[in-house]
Amino acid sequence: MERTGGVRIVIACGTSGGHIFPAVALAQDLKDKNKDIGILFVGSNTALDRRIFEKERLNYYLLSSNKLPYRISLRTAAFFIKLFFDVLKSFFILLKHSPDAVIGFGGYVSSPVIFAAYILRIPRIVHEQNVVPGRANSFLFRFADRIAVSFEETKRYLKRFSYKAVFTGNPIRVTLLKGSREGNIKKFGLDPDKFTILIIGGSQGSHNLNKVFLQAMAKFGREKTAFLQAIHITGITDYGWASQAYEELGLEHRLFSFLDNIEEAYSASDLVVTRSGASAIFEIAYFGRPMILIPYPFAMSHQEENAKFFSRKGAAIKIDEKEMSAGLMKERIEGLLNNRAILDEMAEKARILSVPDSSHNLALEVLKIVK
User: Fold this and answer.
1) Would 8-172+356-370 and 181-353 be classified into the same CATH topology?
2) Which residues are within 8 A (CB) of 192 and not within 5 positions of it... i.e. 6 or more apart?
3) N or C: which end of the chain has fewer CB within 10 A?
């Protein structure tokens, strides 16, 4: 981050795309408002963080990828030792760059940076992506000047800190250009007349989702699958066996371990089957796509509450992990295939929930605390 006469912002995010992509969206919107603004990212020393920061050509520092154990053990002591050194490093970063504001997007990385900013009396915003706040953010709310939320419902979980809350939505990357469904279908070399299902199984806890979806497709039979096609992001681990399974099914598909231009897949799809991380479902909603959501069961209920919210609003169908089976998956997909009116209604309700101005809203809040 260059030391110019302009505004300087530090953004802390890391360890998952759900934290990083909204942060990148905010940075893009701030740059659109003021090209001279200096933005520095602080992430974790994971391959994902490095990859995204390098791809987006961002200025960044890296802290540890520390995680607080759920139970007291020897790992707890190691956690606090790493935290101590990350706080020291955060002080060094903030003193060196003298930012006008610090924004935290949750996860461990936000903790030392927001705490250091609090001690140094630098204005602070914490953004909460999920309906139910995570452990790191719940701790950080006391140190924040403002708490930006993606869901109005989150305010009731903030309790004594609710007066700090402002509803912004979950920032969506301006690079997610919509384009036409037909044009993006052709980019994948698929048939515009077939019903296209996008399966995003390439994140944490994806194996069971990948497996059950392919088993469900097998239950449809070749006559029914002749009218279907899939774009499937499996993750690295499942790519090999999933590729073989698709060949045996004879289902038209495009398979990826990871997909950079995810917006093209969103646009090409008629239905999305995915976990319910906040960043992903708000991006899908932005494209107005109906969803089948299977919350990751070990995320301290964050994904569970996200899925409940979208399901309650009529934008998604929720399937619990413990109930998920090939038969149930087939039943839910088939029910939507046979009722275009419900699909269209879900798509419209998803679009309403997307808060397309979310990046702009949060950028304005950042500039307010700078002033």
Assistant:
1) yes
2) 181, 182, 185, 186
3) C
Report, as an integer, the average pLDDT of 202-228: 87
For residue 15, is pLDDT > 70?
A: yes
Q: How far apart are CA 216 and CA 139, in angstroms?
A: 42
**Domain assignments of the chain as residue spans, ordered by start:** 8-172+356-370, 181-353
Query: What pLDDT, on the 0 to 100 scale, is given for residue 107?
Result: 86
Superfamily of domain 181-353: Glycogen Phosphorylase B; (3.40.50.2000)
Which two tokens mark 129? Answer: 């992506």
- Digit-coded pLDDT (tens) for 270-294: 999 999 989 899 999 999 999 999 9
Residue 301 has pLDDT above 70, yes or no: no
Distance CA 222, CA 225 (A): 5
Do residues 230 and 251 lie in contact, with contact meaning Cβ atoms separated by under 8 Å?
yes
Burial grade of 362 (CB within 10 A; 0-12, 13-18, 19 or more):
buried
Q: What confidence tens digit (pLDDT) does each residue in 239-250 have?
A: 999 999 999 999
Instruction: State the DSSP H helix or E strand holding residue 210, giving kind and residue range, or none if neither.
Output: helix 207-220
Q: How many CB atoms lie within 10 A of CB 248?
A: 9
pLDDT band of residue 299 (cuts 50, 70, 90) is low
For position 177, what pLDDT does the model report? 65
Burial class (CB in 10 A: 0-12, 13-18, 19+), 121: exposed
Mean pLDDT of the chain: 91
- Lowest-confidence region among 82-86, 166-170, 171-175: 171-175
The dotted CATH code for 8-172+356-370 is: 3.40.50.2000
Sheet containing strand 316-318, strands side by side: 252-256, 228-233, 195-200, 271-274, 291-293, 316-318
**What DSSP letter does each residue of 298-327 carry, written as one string?**
TSTTHHHHHHHHHHHTTSEEE--GGG--HH
Long-range contacts (CB closer than 8 Å, 24 or more residues apart) made by 326-329: 326/212, 326/215, 326/216, 326/218, 326/219, 327/216, 327/219, 329/212, 329/213, 329/215, 329/216, 329/273, 329/292
Separation of alpha carbons 230 and 238, rounded Å = 16
